[in-house]
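Risk register update: the risk of archive-format incompatibility is retired. Evidence:
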Amino acid sequence: MRALRAMENDFMKYYAGIDLGGTNIVAGIVDESYNIVAKASVKTNSPRPAQEIMLDMAKACREACENAGIQISDLQWVGVGSPGTANSDTGVIEYSNNIQFYDVPMATFLQEQLKTTVYIDNDANAAAYGEYMAGAAKGAKNAVMVTLGTGVGGGIIVDGKILRGANFAGAELGHIVIEVDGRQCTCARKGCFETYSSATGLIKTTKEEMQKNKLSIMWQMVDGDINKVSGRTAFDAMRKGDKSAKAAVDLYIKFLAAGITNTINIFQPDILCLGGGISKEGDYLINPLKEIVSREVYSRNSKKNAKIVTAALLNDAGIIGAALLGYN
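Archived output:
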């Protein structure tokens, strides 16, 4: 069996993608058909020194190779998706508030550890590129990915290339203001897209609606403890007929539609892909969102408008996109 695997490796191309998250470091081996053939993961345990985290990134990559039955030398290259401002020219993570990285020479360090070429990019860019190359945006010329997680992330593909911006901080879609003097954002502005349309924003909206109606079944669902509210609470209660939950969901989708419409008006992509935990609500989210966007988008009379879809690769988008960074 090992001999057969060795013969296969002589003909198959492999790439490694490392998805650096605030909680986990996940490395995956991706074949030339863009399928993940093996993974390995370790805890990020942030905050801690950057060197310790990068040593664990290298460790995860080696373990993933071992799980795939290949050597590091069999890889075409290694790609990394990291939170924060990732300078893909210099290989330096210039700033990441989530894991407290400041001017970290990640590509150089990992190249020394792994003895192979290393590419880096922002994690949302990597996820968008993964969906573009192998997921819901495959075949599109221009695509945008919006991730609805703790914050709102963005990745933009123009003519097949990642739009990074002059300072590699482009595509911060979550920090477009959609409500002047609105909710305070962690970026220091007020009324940012992510303060309303992230999971965090949805939780805040849900709590506000619950406070208006003490008879809402959402109180029962969280055992009377408002701190147990999650991004699923309002959607679950809405499906049970709760009016306060529906009000929360309707308001959430209204703000989401505003941000999505703005994004489409600016970039006019072939496909806009929604990822993150909230996107798993499926038709309960997508159908009313499409209805509002179709009315409000500037190009509504065009014969060709952006197609809004949910992400196909889920948590694997960042791994696959990172693994393929050498093509971009």
